[in-house]
Amino acid sequence: MNSAALRVLARAVTATALVLTAAACTNTSPASPSATTTTWQQTPTSEAHTASSDRNTAMDIRVTLDGRPVDATLNDSPAARDFAELLPLTLDLEDFHQTERIADLPRRLTTSGAPEPGAPKAGDLTYYAPWGNLALFYRDGDSASDDLLILGSIDADADRLAGADRITIEAAP
Length: 173
Description:
The chain is α+β, with helices and mostly antiparallel strands and 173 residues long. The protein contains four helices and nine strands.
């Protein structure tokens, strides 16, 4: 079986697993904490934090989508720091499930010390550990997954993210 067929098969299996996981998780109590609540700040502060601010705490990066710059940041997770070591990167993107744009990374990232999973939001830059790929969400994801690590976020509208064919990511000066 060639690599393209294996990828399609792997994606189908993963999509099925996600659907089954989402179905199994629908019987949760309304009093349970939100899946997007994160508690992985390395330094405690007195200010209140939201999941969105926790995703944008560590490092500004320079991102261009199809040659046009956008604002972006990486969080302070071990996976995001490992990803920063790969920079600069230029990757060709392809659509996945009309929700995200994906690309293969040159190597796998660390998953140790991963924060509690959160459901991906449009603009999230993520790492899908089972495939070792980068995923840029242009629509909100359905649910949180232990296999999907949020690395940071890109500040661009959904149409621009959805139509992106190439991403260049560099460390900011």
